């Protein structure tokens, strides 16, 4: 086994003499010959540092020694090659409750206050990411040195919270308050150059120059004066004007009753921004209160759901070369993403124009992903247009991504069967066809499975890994590992019509289009769902997906399901026949020729309640049916899949969580009423009884 010293030396992290020190809890500490103390965060049993109560207690003990015998200076950095610290330990947040939260927060604040008041210069050295509580630890130091590539951010709003270990008052005191508030309210990450320009980083250097940079920083800490903007925002009237603008901006994105954290953050700064002590007290109280909200509880749960999907068996995919058949909208996205994530990719299509478009799309995705020029070059080099399909012969995984036509797919499989190497995996990106039907006639059905990406594959996080009766479990493990290796979330699904996501989503979309046919304004329908918390209204979503695709999936599910689906609206069929297929055609239910339509939230409340039940409960009922039929392992997988594939309002926790919080008996009763009024498609599935 490699020693810690060998590991750290291999990654060339400058840690003074701390690499020689024994780890005590989460920390290592040693003084170098120049009298500088190096405090190294090195949480055991993890490749990533997080800041927990134990982390802060360990730092508190180290501060005892530093206060008793002050060094010339003190450096805090991480021993983890991946970065500084990823934020607070979410397990700690999940366990906090009641008055205990405030008490624990106060203890944490006391430790960082001690660090800030230490009687020697303190320098945080940041490589990789310093997020949330990790950044708050760095902000308690006198200065911050970044290694090129470092980034900082406060993502707490995505958990229904705001910074809670001093970030609200330390960041607004360190940099321009409006810039600090923007960073916290958006939950975005500031990369090296941006963080330097904001003033969060005092210097950017390379690892080999760090020792000298630390000595220089300790000898001459940077000073900073107030600019005109900071002076104005330091006054109560100035903050009041800025706070009104901030609330107006936030209100365009999220509602206060859905996501209270950004509104509470604005309150904190407006009311106490001129007094750090009062702002600290208010931050603690506000954070503790937010922890008790349903929004925070559900968003923290969504975090854990993501982690569950990320965790898998120890199996590796052993997939290095991916061959994609079909350079249409899905195929080119899949190919580009796999190449960006390090796979060698060949992409085949009969159309040279389609292959050319795929290369251009890959370049666009590289830009969207902020790849630097060498990374972009390498990614594009890994993706090879392959009009003759030669790559299938040496690929570890072949992904078929052609239109939903079973006969077409079988013809492709027949050809692939004569060229694919022994042991290679064949996967279909089908969204609605039965895998068992597609597997019929395959020479090696054990190596055939579903790998259903969502559009656009470069942005959507979830992938459904589908098994048909003959699929080998080892193949499923390898495909799930492949999903994780390309930074995607796999969910196992059984071979049922539409798998999970399309089975649950299609009743929701069709019901919306039925409402349009009944004469309800499309914008009222979309606005009702925006008010519910969905990221996009269902009519807009249908246009985005493509009305032709919606129609094909609806037909397929209607033919295969043993429970009634919403009737396919005549208007949908007519629009597809006319070629008005949505965004890609420039015209669908909305006119897309001048950009994306933006229905406004705030529909009539009574109308919204009725629409909400017809749309959301149709989705919930389909999810319960999928759970009863064993399409997925459990209710958590359903909630995770619907959040990460459809954007189902995360603060509500997913369809099953929403139904439980509303009351299962009430939901079932409401479905029965809807069934009496609108027909058997709303008759509650028998699986509701099993949720009690």
Automatic annotation (TrEMBL):
Its EC number is 4.2.1.17. Gene3D superfamilies: 1.10.1040.50, 2-enoyl-CoA Hydratase, Chain A, domain 1, NAD(P)-binding Rossmann-like Domain. One of its GO terms (molecular function) is enoyl-CoA hydratase activity. It comes from the Bacteria. Keywords: Fatty acid metabolism, Lipid degradation, Lipid metabolism, Lyase, Multifunctional enzyme, NAD, Oxidoreductase. Residues 498-592 form the 3-hydroxyacyl-CoA dehydrogenase C-terminal domain. The keyword Lyase applies. Pathway: Lipid metabolism; fatty acid beta-oxidation. InterPro entries: 3-OHacyl-CoA_DH_CS, 3-OHacyl-CoA_DH_NAD-bd, 3HC_DH_C, 6-PGluconate_DH-like_C_sf, ClpP/crotonase-like_dom_sf, Enoyl-CoA_hydra/iso, FA_oxidation_alpha_subunit, NAD(P)-bd_dom_sf. It catalyses: a (3S)-3-hydroxyacyl-CoA + NAD(+) = a 3-oxoacyl-CoA + NADH + H(+). Residues 321-495 form the 3-hydroxyacyl-CoA dehydrogenase NAD binding domain. The keyword Transit peptide does not apply. One of its GO terms (biological process) is fatty acid beta-oxidation. In the central section; belongs to the 3-hydroxyacyl-CoA dehydrogenase family. PANTHER family: TRIFUNCTIONAL ENZYME SUBUNIT ALPHA (PTHR43612), TRIFUNCTIONAL ENZYME SUBUNIT ALPHA, MITOCHONDRIAL (PTHR43612:SF3). This is enoyl-CoA hydratase. It comes from Ruegeria marina.
